[in-house]
Amino acid sequence: MKRSIHFEGITVKYSIEGKGRPVVLLHGYLLTGEAWRPLTDVLSETFRVISVDIPGHGGSGVKGDTHTMEFIAEAVRAVLNDAGEEKVLLAGHSMGGYAALAFAEKYPGMLAGYVLFHSHPYADAPEGILKRKREIEVVMAGKKNIMYPANISMMFAEGNLKTMPAALTKLKRLASVNSAEGIFAILNGMIVRP
């Protein structure tokens, strides 16, 4: 079931599937909650799965030029309040893991546990910040369509690029719906994370 809430002047979209203990899935940079589809199909047989379109991505709105991980954590908390959840297992992929860590810091009492999936607790190194700033330049120059296909391809092991073409195409399609403003806000938020 697709749902949405109003949070700090923007819409935040999310979906709920299945019944049981709640599991919340936070997608990575350039993706949407739909990226979790294969896992959601399996988990929803046993769990209540909540997939969020992180603000700035998918169907969720953009607020300002920086979406800090703390801002995303607050949006996730608002989603959980709307869904009637008090304690959840939270799984974050890549950037979603950064948001999961911010959530764990702000709302530890709401967590039954958390999972970092291809993520880590470290701030960007200087070369990572430089890469994100270059991406911002490309996006703000109106060339996001040049940037996101290469970024999505880098999410796959080289051998999987040939064996998983449908998954690659799907993720590129999901990335294509993100606005330049949303990508800009998320990149700025990742740059400033502690």
Quick structural gist:
The protein is α/β, with parallel strands linked by helices and 194 residues long. The chain has helices at 37-43, 69-83, 95-106, 126-140, 144-153, 158-163, 165-176, 180-191, and strands at residues 2-7, 10-17, 22-26, 48-52, 88-93, 111-117.
Characterization of the model:
The protein has 194 residues and is of the alpha/beta class. The protein has helices at residues 37-43, 69-83, 95-106, 126-140, 144-153, 158-163, 165-176, 180-191, and strands spanning 2-7, 10-17, 22-26, 48-52, 88-93, 111-117. Helix content is 46%, strand content 19%. It has a six-stranded mixed beta sheet, with helices on both faces. Helix 3 (95-106) links the parallel strand 5 and strand 6. Helix 4 crosses helix 5 and helix 5 packs antiparallel against helix 7 (165-176). The model has no long low-confidence stretch (mean pLDDT 96).
